[in-house]
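Hi R.,

Here's the chain you asked about this morning:
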Amino acid sequence: MQTSRAIRMAGTTSAVLAALVLCVGCGAADEPGSAAPESSTPSPSATPTASASEPSGSTNSSVTLTVQLFPDGSTAGSQYSLGCAAAEPIGESQAPDPQAACQTIHEHPQILTPQRGGNRMCTEIYGGPSKAIVSGTLNGKEFSTEFTRSNGCYIDEWDTLASLLGQGSDLPIN
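And here is the predicted structure, written out as tokens:
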């Protein structure tokens, strides 16, 4: 009885160790087809010049930004600006949904300056070649960051900002 229990435990331990070995680096790569894990230092395109440290839901947040869209990842498509005072858009904008974009940014300003390093587990799902460069000021501090759809984590960031960036696969080339 003791011997068969010891054999089962050894088999279970071996299976767990094998799964861990196979999973090392799972989903941690930045680019599709790459097996290298993300470093603990954010990439240059992900390093904001200022952080969005204002608390979520603050009533005095302001943002002025420019969005450049690259539907195929390299060819410039559309470009537009968006201004927000608190959760309300200021002026005209070609953003897909300026009201919803301002609301999202007001509630979650850190989405404009994502901290991407570390050992995040990201699914290796490729969401298409679309790229967006968003730059401007958030609460008086300058920032610039890039959004892609190259893995599950980045797709999630993009989808959170869909009211600003569009759906990715349907971006117009002007």
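One quick note: The longest strand covers residues 62-70.

Cheers,
M.
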